[in-house]
Amino acid sequence: MPYLAEIRQETPGCFLFLVDQSGSMDDSSNAPNWHRRAESVADAINQCLCKLVLKCAKSDGVRNYYHVGVIGYGLSVGSAFSGSLSERPLVPLVEIVDSFLRMDRRTKKVSDGEGGIMELEVKVPVWLDPVARGDARLNEALIVAYRILKEWIARNKTSYPPIVVNLTGGETDSDPSVAAQALTGLATADGNVLLCNWYFPDTIVPPVIFPDSESALLTEQGRRLFRMSSVLPQELCDAAIYEGFVVNSQSRAFASNADLIRLVEFPQIGARPADWFNRITRKS
Amino acid sequence: MMLKARQFSLPKDGNSLDEYEDACSFSIASCRAAIADGATESSFSGQWAQSLVEHFISGEEENSPIQEQLELRHWLAPIQKVWMENIPWQSLEWYTEHKARLGAFAAFLGLQITNKDQADSKDAGKPVLGDCVWSAVACGDSCLFHVRCGELLCAFPIRNSSEFGNSPSLLSSVSAANERAFTKVVREHGECRMGDLFLLATDALSCWILNECETGKSPWEAMNTLSGQEEFYTLVDNLRQTHRMKNDDVTLLIIELAGGQYRSHSGCESL
Questions:
Q1: B-chain residues within 8 Å CB-CB of A236?
Q2: Which of A99, A180, A282, B171 has the greatest CB tally within 10 Å of its CB?
Q3: Rounded distance, CA A21 to CA A19, Å?
Q4: Inter-chain CB proximity B18 and A111 less than 8 Å
């Protein structure tokens, strides 16, 4: 059964983020404080990277459970990291841990356990600053992603399939559907590459996550991105249901105006949940 | 009647002993046993799991979380304070500090065996002749199995292998994170007698045990004949390689109510 490979340091997983850094992202967004979409996207990436580090961190260090890359597309198409991180398309997670640009401090509201709310100051590393220049070269970014992952898969043949997350405002300078199809045609022994499109529309629309039909989307850009998105494999459907999402066998890896952090919660590190093992043994 | 106890443990395959995050402890003198399973994705969870089991074993009877009327937040408060004070905050990397401030989490199960006639007395816990009562408290997916003459009398708190998942309720080292967990704490009790076995196991092994029970098998037969850690390793390794048990830290504590007369408080304890 696919999408069951254990994510371990010996057989790491892979997250490749594609980030729309085109001039079209230099406008107001649906965020409550009306940040530019470029800021929303950069913030989403930084939070995801932080979440991945925390997910893999133990008291004595960070485990290399993932290889990570961030490809920006706008004025150029290439690594959106700065410094030495930008020299390679994918790096082991431990290498990004301390390679941030700066450490911001934010206040987070949490429960105090007594029915009230308290404020907790947390450190938030910043790896990416907002960029909004150039054309929306999504087609080219998908082709670059194809080359990167073809090489990665050749070295990690049995790993959990790579997950590509495209954070986009929806515009594109040329039809990306063929490149998207080629990308999702790549596969490890455990399954095909998953392409997940996270859409940041420039109009106010209701949040949508893992829809099963493009009719749920109000813009042609959203519908095109939906068609390009991978159908959620059964195991991820089960994980999504467990996390409280409403999905079915037709649901796709697509979201609009939604919190990206939830996506990096799965797949699970290490072994599959015990109840999944039960289903496997019963079926066999 | 006296208690005999044996414990077995193995870290997750691919991890070192330093990364092992389960904990277990028992006291023949007080007839208590406890097991805890630190959450993989939280920091310093192994230390927290150890604190939980030691706190249960060494605590006063009237302040035991077995007692229905005891508020768990009060029981946890002293060890939460110690846990917080023992974190080397100044020397932590940013990600470790970030995670540590969110708290450590662990599943927990505690078992108390009390002489039936002295269940309400201050001498409860001293091994004597006669039937006994057992009481247990749990939060999460570490389990207890009460076995008599090869038959399972009780599985607690989980009774079906399908109930295992990746998000069990866990006790936290940070007060603010326990609101939901406190609503999920469960207690159970029953009678027990000479020859009974209690198996306490963390989730991976517990799930396999229940799986075996559901297919009509008696997994405690193999476990009760384990002569040492090597045989336990062989058993667990086989289960992992054949995908009958998930790859995780594994801990097993076997408590047996053995035959024998009570001579003195120091004379009849045994391992």
A1: none
A2: B171
A3: 6
A4: no
* Cβ-based neighbours of A265, under 8 Å, separated by 6 or more: A51, A55, A243
B205 with B250: CB under 8 angstroms? yes
Confirm if B169 and B184 have CB atoms less than 8 A apart.
yes
For B88, list phi and psi in degrees, rounded to 5. -80, 70
> Distance between CA A49 and CA A62 in Å, rounded?
13
Contact call for B95 and A97, based on CB within 8 A: yes
Whether the pTM exceeds 0.95: the reply is no
Q: Is A275 on the interface with B (CB under 8 A)?
A: yes
Instruction: Give the distance from residue B42's alpha carbon to the nearest chain A alpha carbon, in angstroms.
Output: 7
Q: What is the distance between the alpha carbons of residues B120 and A127, in angstroms, rounded to a whole number? A: 61
Give the dihedral of Cα atoms B55, B56, B61, B63; nearest 10 deg: 60
Residue A274: pLDDT band (50, 70, 90) is: very low
Tokens in use for B229? 């850690």
Tell me the CA end-to-end span of chain A in Å, nearest whole number.
11
Contact: B44, A59; criterion CB under 8 Å: yes
Closest by CA to A163, choosing from A213, A197, A201, is: A197
Residue A71, SS3 per DSSP: strand
Closest to A197 (Cα-Cα) out of A174, A230, A175, A159: A230
Q: Which of B196, B194, B187, B141 is nearest to B168 (CA)?
A: B141
Q: Which helix or strand (DSSP H or E) is residue B63 part of?
A: none
Q: Which residue of A has its CA nearest to B73?
A: A113
Counting beta carbons within 10 angstroms of the beta carbon of residue B60, is it exposed (0 to 12), middle (13 to 18) or buried (19 or more)? Answer: exposed
Is A122 close to B40, i.e. CB distance below 8 A?
no
Helical axes B94-102 vs A37-56, angle rounded to 10°: 80
Pairing of strands B250-258, B197-201: antiparallel
CB-CB neighbours of B77 under 10 Å: 12
Chunk chain B into consecutive blocks of 10 residues (it has 271) and report each block's average pLDDT, rounded to whole numbers: 89 86 94 92 88 93 80 92 92 87 92 76 49 93 96 96 82 88 92 95 96 94 90 95 92 88 31 31
- Cα separation of B196 and B184, whole Å? 28
Torsions phi, psi for A132 (to 5 deg): -145, 85
Question: Would you say residue A271 has pLDDT above 60?
Answer: no
Distances (CA, A) of A30 to A207, B2, B131: 10, 68, 68
Segment B41-84, tens digit of pLDDT: 778 899 999 999 999 999 887 778 888 777 888 999 999 999 99
In chain A, beta strands by DSSP E:
13-20, 57-58, 61-62, 66-73, 77-79, 91-92, 102-111, 117-126, 163-168, 187-188, 191-192, 194-199, 208-209, 254-256
Q: Is A108 on the interface with B (CB under 8 A)?
A: no
Q: Report pLDDT for A51.
A: 86
